[in-house]
Amino acid sequence: MPKRDSSHMAARRKQILDAASASIQEKGVAGLSISDISGSAGLSVGAIYTHFKSKEEILASLITQDNGVGNADLFKDCPTIDATLHRLTALLQQVQNDGEATLKGHIAIQVVVLAHRSELVHNAIELQYRGLRDAVMAQVALLQAASAQQANQKLAAMVGECLLGLMLSVQFQRLAGITPDTEAKILAAKNLLELLQASPLKP
């Protein structure tokens, strides 16, 4: 048998991950099985295990894979409060629809129940959360530095944590089958961002 090159292996892994994504959209994480992934991918169970050791490893890969926009680039080209609000609005509205853009977040929330018994899954969830938090906090710091007000770490931390909470709550609402009150969250995000231009909080 000819040796498989890295591009072939990468294509097979993507095929498996795409099949897992399709199965999760249909049945949810709880209903996901290697057999389902095998059938959806058109590969044998043995072929699945050639690339992934377990269902948990597949889930971890789905959470951490780069779908085009990583956390580090979340606020790329958003140098102003208006541009940042526009990006946040797009992200919040995106969660209302199923699809690749929100699948990673949905998977991460659904597999929280697995995190206490799978270190691999726990680490993947924490990695994604830390990356998102870092991106939000860095953007808030950038915007505050660009404002006319004196930098205030307490204010920046408050705004950043609140924005992060808004983003996460939309995903939880969507997963729970509750229509997200997205417009209210966008208004809250606007007011939070405008605080960066207001008088700094007292330490």
Distance between the termini: 68 Å
Percent of residues in helices comes to 55-70%
- CATH top level assignment of the largest domain: Mainly Alpha
Let me know the largest β-sheet: none
Describe this structure in words.
It contains ten helices and no strands. With 203 residues, the protein is mainly α. It has two domains: 6-52, Homeodomain-like (Arc Repressor Mutant, subunit A, Orthogonal Bundle); 71-195, Tetracycline Repressor, domain 2. Helix 4 (55-64) packs across helix 6 (100-110).
Which keywords apply here?
mainly alpha, Arc Repressor Mutant, subunit A, Tetracycline Repressor, domain 2
Helices and strands in order:
Elements: H1 6-27, H2 34-41, H3 45-51, H4 55-64, H5 81-94, H6 100-110, H7 112-115, H8 119-146, H9 153-175, H10 182-195
Brief sketch in words of this structure:
By secondary structure, this protein is mainly α.
